[in-house]
Automatic annotation (TrEMBL):
Source species: Paenarthrobacter ureafaciens
Family annotation (Gene3D superfamilies): HUPs (3.40.50.620), TPP-binding domain (3.40.50.1220)
Domain of life: Bacteria
Residues reported in the UniProt entry to bind FAD: 207, 230-231, 244-248, 282
Keyword Flavoprotein among UniProt keywords: yes
InterPro entries assigned: DHS-like_NAD/FAD-binding_dom, ETF_a/b_N, ETF_a/FixB, ETF_asu_C, Rossmann-like_a/b/a_fold
Essential cofactor(s): FAD
GO biological process: fatty acid beta-oxidation using acyl-CoA dehydrogenase
Cofactor note (record): Binds 1 FAD per dimer.
Lineage start: Bacteria, Bacillati, Actinomycetota, Actinomycetes, Micrococcales
Keywords, ordered alphabetically: FAD, Flavoprotein
Name the record gives this protein: Electron transfer flavoprotein subunit alpha/FixB family protein
Subunit text: Heterodimer of an alpha and a beta subunit.
Amino acid sequence: MANALVFIDNPGASLKKSSLELLTLARQLGETAVAVNGELNDDAAATLGAYGVTAVYQPSSNDLGDYLVGPKAAYLAAAVAASGATRVLLENSPEGKEIAGRLGIKLSAGVITDVVGVEADGTAHKSVLAGSYNTSAKATTPVAVLTVKANLIEPQPADTATTPEVAKVEVPADATAAAARISSREAKPASGRPDLSEARIVVAGGRGVDGDFGPLEELADVLGAAVGASRAATDAGWIGHDAQVGQTGVTVSPQLYISAGISGAIQQKAGMQTSKVIVAINKDAESPVFEIADFGIVGDLFKVLPQATAEIKKR
Ligand code: FAD
């Protein structure tokens, strides 16, 4: 019987950093099982063992990938029953939260979102009001469902590796009967840049870029960085919404966050304030972004960024 069950959707060729973070946190709750949706190759299976996972569950049909969240919640409910876990951990993504809500209803379980840490007794620490406060919460129900914010926990393999048992879980037939299914997917043109939520360096732009992300992209390319944005920039249509960093966007925690033409509103800070080093470029010396910056440059981003790119290219 496991104490914690981690949901990993589409594990891919190698597990995402966010999945490793969930596995690291789950171990603090005791024996950990994983419910996988999608193909699990040998490398990913070995990683689960390295993280101390004792049991891996897969849907019997192996066919949930094209469905939206409903069948995934039904599958997870069945995996909870099979594993005996009392804590279920998912990503704090919009989809993770929706699955968590549906699972909570199915299991009459308490749901705690925006989790940033958890104690062995199940007390969860959560971030509220755009990261301004941390609070603690503990579900009083037998099973609790937790969605965990990304990039706040350092992935740590277990001291002793395991060989997880693999078992199939029967997904109730009615779970997929009337469920919406994805009919086609459109691949985004590959940028060659790292995934925003997992990048070690992020170059982010706001309203100050005035529609031109070119200088940011050039700097990102010489640094091997991802490009992020404030909501002002994504709302203006200058860059896709998937680049939005902040309370209602992606949470990042890179080694280096370069903020250009962003004022540093509380909702933007919520998604990047745990970055190890923050460099802010803003032409307004009074901008609140300088309150959280480790290094501040008062200047025009269209002059500062090309200089930085040229200087780095020389090295
Ligand atoms: P502004 O506040 O307009 O700042 C632009 C900055 O650029 C200014 O400081 C200016 O001095 C500087 N600038 C202008 N030209 C240049 C130049 N040439 N060189 C250098 N600097 C220049 N925001 C997010 O970012 N992420 C979120 O997830 C998010 N979620 C939200 C959720 C809710 C419920 C709400 C209400 C708001 C949310 N917002 C979010 C919006 C947030 O409140 C701010 O409005 C937004 O972050 C401002 O974006 P900005 O800093 O790019 O623009």
